[in-house]
Specification:
Length: about 290
């Protein structure tokens, strides 16, 4: 099931007779965007499985949450709708807005790599009518791109990652009443991250990582998932792809050498994995960003 299909925010707007989807795209694995217009409507969001970042582009001065009727939207306002949240909205008048959707795995990876915290410690803070000029500027960059054109879709994906990282750095907070059980010790988690990053060009097996942590493979896999928010193989692949994006942006290494430097068995294996995650080939990504 695609990100948009399993996204309750997207599906709720899609079911409205007054909302119009101007444009939408799956920008990569676990990342999507949509451009909406709506008028004289009421929408409820209940427990979406993905995070939504919303930017009001025009109108919205008659839009409010039912429980906070005194606070109204306006062009340039942002809303953060975390996975699992609930909210009810009234739209009086007209509104045009853009959405960026991203998976809980993207949040988990950013929490670990940017904040050095376990994803289960943190939650994306729910925000209504937030002011953040940098994110608004990125939204305007995003909607000016043609998401159907391969090079521009890759640029859109890159902007989307910037927006996710900014959100995690500025809008993530500790969960209320946090009591963590199990998982890896913080010092071991950090050593594992450093070990994986130092070995990205080499094959990395579950047994190797379990031995590094002095645990059985079964217990290591379970505790790793608790501390990293994803299985070991998904985290390793995410780090390989992040290294590949950096090499494609910052160096002139041939694609075959980038593939080997990031631990992919062949250029075709690298291309297939990169395309699935980014929505385009490594060569197209390099060309788009340059």
């Amino acid at each position: 099931m695609s990100l948009l299909d399993r996204n309750q925010v997207f599906q709720s707007l899609s079911s409205s007779p007054n909302a119009r989807l101007e444009h939408s795209a799956e920008l990569g694995d676990g990342l999507g965007a949509a451009l909406w217009s709506n008028h004289h409507d009421a929408r409820d969001y209940a427990g979406p499985q993905v995070h939504t970042l919303s930017c009001y582009l025009a109108g919205g001065t008659g839009t409010f949450r039912r429980e906070r009727p005194e606070a109204k939207g306006a062009p340039g306002k942002l809303c953060i709708l975390p996975a699992g949240h609930e909210s009810s909205w009234v739209i009086n008048g007209e509104i045009r807005l853009a959405h960026l959707y991203f998976s809980t795995q993207h949040f988990a990876e950013a929490a670990v790599t940017l904040l050095d915290r376990e994803p289960r410690e943190l939650q994306l803070q729910e925000r209504t009518f937030l002011d953040d000029p940098l994110q608004v500027a990125r939204f305007h960059q995003l909607i000016q791109l043609d998401w159907k054109e391969p090079a521009e879709r890759l640029r859109a994906t890159s902007i989307g990652f910037e927006m996710i990282h900014h959100n995690v750095l500025t809008q993530a907070g500790l969960r209320d009443g946090l009591r963590l059980k199990g998982g890896l010790a913080p010092a071991l988690r950090k050593r594992l991250m450093e070990y994986i990053d130092s070995r990205l060009a080499e094959p990395i097996s579950l047994g190797e990582l379990a031995a590094f942590a002095a645990l059985s493979e079964y217990h290591f896999a379970r505790m790793f998932r608790e501390s990293f928010g994803m299985p070991p193989h998904q985290y390793v692949l995410a780090r390989r792809l992040e290294r590949a994006r950096w090499l494609l942006r910052e160096t002139a290494l041939p694609l075959g050498e980038v593939a080997l430097a990031c631990g992919f068995s062949s250029a075709s294996h690298f291309s297939n994995r990169f395309r699935a995650a980014m929505g385009g080939s490594p060569g197209a990504y390099r060309a788009a960003l340059r």
